[in-house]
Amino acid sequence: MLALLKTNFKISTIDIVYWGIVYCFILYAFEGPIRFYSDKVSFREFIYTKDIVLLALGTLLVFRVDDRVLTSRIVVIYIYVMSLFGLVALLNGLPIKQVFLAYKIYLILFVGIQSYRLLPELGPRLLKAMNCLALFSCLGLIINMFCSFPWEGVDMSIGNIIVDTSRTAYAAGGFKRVAGFGRNWSNPAYFALIATVLNYSYIKHIKFRHIILVLVFFIGILISTNKGAIITFLIISFFAVIIRKVPSYILKIVMLATLLIVIALPLLSWNEVLNVDYSSLVSRIIFSSFKARVEDVWPQALILIKEHGSLIFGRGIGGIGAPQLIFEPSIYHPADNLFIYLYGLFGVFSCVIFAYLGVKIMVLSIKDSRDTIFVAYLILSFLGIGVIGSALENGILNFFFGIMLASLYSQKIKFISSSVSDLPS
């Protein structure tokens, strides 16, 4: 009887998590029109129902019936670290509302961490939903290239805060960025990237329609001009073709190299070692935003942390990135790099996080199942986007990155048995 109750609970939990996450993702995919039309009917708070759903999911998954203790342990660590550096933020003078806004951003990451134990059933189920949402998101970008939507550039007031319904801007170099049905140009790109990863991981037999779908996703990513997503898409697509033909250590080397690049680029920028020069149109397209980061954006991050925080402890939760837009607009910094972002939050503890990631990547069992291949591609996405972006501030990505972090936590550190078996004969 007890086993039956556990099975029923597990099935109902998967259903609740699946539909809850799909609901949240629908709001992300169509955030532009949803914000615009909910403002028209004076129900501006509707978009925030996703936060209520995520809070309910997080609570449900904490109080679960399960023989495994994996998720509970990582949840304890997560809560401890977030609480500790929330206190650091308050000691650095950040408003408590700014800290809680950051906690709201990471709520879906928390749900993703706990959803890892459901991945064997949840992953394939999310495939169709993400394909649909990614397809609509990409079509929205394509349409937006030729005509404007009524929600573009419109502001709305929620309480005493002015927020935009949909952002249209210009990238460095003068290239227009459109958001389609989303609130910003990155969300459609991330929908397309994650949907591509799910297809590569869980589709057993690739058919012509799958190829067409992935090509549409790539077009959408190109239109978004999100270079991190573009490069990551190409790398993951390359490995998806050769994954069965090469040993796992090749993929691990690429992951570790990307991790080192994430750390090295801002450090070189802070020491004024990097110098980016371009003259041709092609080089301006490729390197204009990178040049801006190297010469201006990344060095300003170090100044922010030194003057408004601590080089040892960082600024704490909410101390860099999106929460600043509302509470610290005069010193707002986007980070635009995963190392800078984590260093801004956690100080030197971010080095411990990166070292831990590197060790866990080395002992990762990649080809054990489709789930482990999926996690490997998520790691590439996490690090690839993190080279020139703040990957942990996006709600779409954060759910899957939570799954990734829990998966890495589950890997046992056995250097001899894990690494030697993966070496070429």
Can you tell me about this structure?
The structure is a single chain. By secondary structure, this protein is mainly alpha-helical. The chain has one domain. Helix content is 68%, strand content 3%. Helix 7 (119-146) crosses helix 8 (186-202) and helix 11 crosses helix 12 (281-308). The chain starts with a helix and ends in a 5-residue tail after the last helix. Residues 416-425 have low confidence and may be disordered.
Structure at a glance:
The chain has 425 residues and is mainly α.
Layout of helices and strands:
Layout: H1 2-29, H2 31-40, H3 49-62, H4 70-91, H5 96-105, H6 107-115, H7 119-146, E1 155-158, E2 161-164, E3 169-171, E4 175-177, H8 186-202, H9 208-224, H10 227-242, H11 248-270, H12 281-308, H13 322-327, H14 338-346, H15 349-362, H16 370-386, H17 395-410, H18 415-420
Helix pairs in contact: 1-3, 1-7, 3-6, 4-6, 6-17, 7-8, 7-9, 8-9, 8-10, 8-16, 10-16, 11-12, 11-15, 11-16, 14-15, 16-17
